[in-house]
Design goal:
56% helix, AhpD-like, Rossmann fold, single chain, 389 residues, alpha/beta, 18 helices, 8-stranded mixed β-sheet
């Protein structure tokens, strides 16, 4: 459903997908893009979440207010969209300029924020000189020149070679942006500095970085994660637009945060635990376990579903990949080979792990658990890999 709030130059265009009664997620764009930059996430999340995305002022189908903009302007625009959609509070996911806006919401409007996913941004993005030069380039050469300049920073060389059509689409997206709107947002980036404020964010935050991002670096993300107490840092193999280049991983980790932080934390959830168990181990294993339940083990299965999967695995303090590594390593240490094989198989099938990843975990354990344990683990892992082909 498409909608708008305001009129004329103050108009904000937004789109809502997903069930009306589902937890709401607000997506905030990067500089020079439209709400279409979130297509992969909208497709992945809208079956279970109410996804709200909008065109930043001066971009896409939103109006172009005259003059320069401020971060306060952009943050208040996000509140206007939430109000128009009838949403009291939402999970907020922003990238680049949108990530800065998301942090503003966490600082200034904490009651409207359920959790944060902050991607490829910094509390202070670049320098005043950088943005002054960018404004001059737009005024002198137009938006097409900006597209040619920033596309290499948005996508890694490997992605540009692999997905030329996507890269071309984003270059065209940049060229379509109104230059006055783009310049107005450049002014907001030139002046915004939240370094002394983000320590006051109390919402849980997943901070995402791209290991090839030269615009907002891993060090910038680390600084955010350090400042926001209890946050988690995730580094993806990508450049600046991680939600596009690593769409599946970005969507999977983001949704895990939203689902966990949407539920009550006072009582472990059987339904939430089963969802997580299926996510980690796969439907086939969980279906077999349920089918094989007996009066003797039914209460035990309920216990582990609620507390192991519904309470521990869903805690936001460690990301999913770290928990998988810990479990695989622990199974080596304890010699629980059936469970080791189960988690190795699951990590390879649905966790994004490679054979080299499994090898590294085993080599680490060889030092601390002993060569015989590692030797046996390599044998078990080899059998799993052979079964998977």
């Amino acid at each position: 459903m498409d909608g708008s709030v305001g009129a004329g130059s103050a108009r904000l265009h937004y789109r809502v997908d997903g069930p009306e009664d589902a937890p709401a997620v607000l997506l905030i764009n990067s500089l020079g893009t439209t709400l279409d930059m979130w297509s992969a996430q909208a497709d992945a999340w809208s079956p279970r979440l109410r996804v709200i995305r909008y065109d930043t002022r001066g971009h896409g189908q939103s109006g172009v207010p005259p003059g320069e903009y401020t971060l306060d302007d952009l943050g208040n625009d996000a509140i206007r969209v939430l109000d128009a959609a009838g949403v009291e509070s939402a999970h907020v996911c922003g990238i680049s300029l949108g990530g800065l806006t998301a942090m503003w919401l966490g600082v200034r409007q904490p009651a409207r924020v359920r959790s944060l996913v902050i991607a490829n941004t910094a509390a202070r993005v670049g320098t005043a000189q950088r943005w002054t030069e960018r404004i001059a380039k737009v005024r002198g050469e137009g938006m097409a020149a900006i597209g040619d300049m920033i596309t290499p920073a948005w996508f890694s060389p490997a992605f540009r070679e692999r997905e030329p059509a996507i890269v071309a689409r984003f270059r065209e997206m940049v060229a379509s942006i109104n230059p006055d709107g783009y310049v107005g947002c450049c002014a907001a980036l030139r002046d915004a500095d939240l370094r002394d404020e983000i320590g006051g964010i109390h919402s849980f935050a997943l901070v995402i970085a791209g290991d090839q991002d030269t615009s907002t670096t891993v060090a910038d993300a680390e600084a955010i994660s350090f400042a926001i107490r209890g946050s988690t840092l995730l580094t993806l193999n990508a450049a600046h637009l991680t939600n596009v280049e690593c769409a599946e991983s970005f969507s999977r980790h983001g949704e895990a945060v939203f689902q966990v932080m949407s539920g009550p934390r006072d009582e472990p959830s059987h339904a939430g635990g089963e969802r997580m168990r299926r996510r980690i181990l796969g439907d086939a294993h969980v279906d077999r376990s349920i089918k094989n339940a007996t009066p003797l083990n039914a209460e035990f299965l309920d216990l582990i579903t609620r507390y192991v999967w519904g309470e521990i695995w869903t805690r936001p303090g460690l990301d999913e990949r770290t928990r998988r590594v810990l479990v695989i390593g622990t199974m080596v240490a304890l010699g629980r080979w059936e469970e080791f094989a189960l988690h190795v198989r699951a990590a390879l099938v649905s966790g994004g792990f490679t054979a080299d990843d499994i090898k590294e975990v085993i080599l680490q354990q060889a030092v601390y658990c002993g060569v015989p344990a590692a030797n046996h683990a390599l044998g078990v892992a080899a059998k799993v890999l052979a079964e998977l082909g």
